[in-house]
Amino acid sequence: MPAIEAKHWNQVASGWSLRGYSNELLGENKIKTYLGLIARWADVSNTKRILKTDLFAEAFGPEQFLFDMAQTNSGVIAIDISREIVALAKKEARQHNVDASRYICCDVRHLPIQSNSIDLIISDSTLDHFPDEEDIITALKELARVLKVGGILILTIDNKSNLTYPPYIFVRLWMRLHLSPYFIGRTLSFARLRNILEEIGLTVEERIAILHYPHPDGLVRWLESSLRRVSKGRLDNTIRKTLAYSNRLEGKRTRYLTGRYLAVKAVKEEIA
Asked: What is the pTM of this model?
């Protein structure tokens, strides 16, 4: 299965530039949201060893935030199952004057990293691209293994509570009709995620829902591209303000009904 998944993501990477998926304003909003979330939950500049669990955004530009993080901590280890994506991310990193020597190709379910060696893990919508819940559990166990006692896991996955999140049978149909540019996997409810994390020695200290727009986000991406093209950029500030306004939903009681991703901060506890 890992070989098949690696082949899939290599193919996605090879054809990505032809698909036209470049949403600059959505990317700006996503970067700001992730950097703000990480700053609230961790001290990146004073963290020794950081692991990021995929490099897709870094390979293709508009939604990356790792290169911004590298301005305060250049020692980030980053992984991806696709050799093509790792190579593209390294190329982009050089253009940002970022050290990419610790970007490696591997499977998050089988990390070539020493146990109890990572202080902070950032997993941004990586684990919701697996076909089965067991794969998510295996990956979480592996992340818990490499995390130090007292270390922090910041994890985001597709939010099942979002009002627009469809039954998985429709997700499969969406992919079969080639309406998705890549494989969309399973995800977990917060209750299920918390139970799994507790079973493997991680305690959830914080949770929130982020990026408040529909799932899948194809319609939002199409709207941004269409409005920018038709208005020739004159509506850019209006789009930015609309996205900023939508972020205020994070503070509402209904946030788990509107948030695109579920985000949690979990800390590894010492085993008694």
From this structure: 0.95
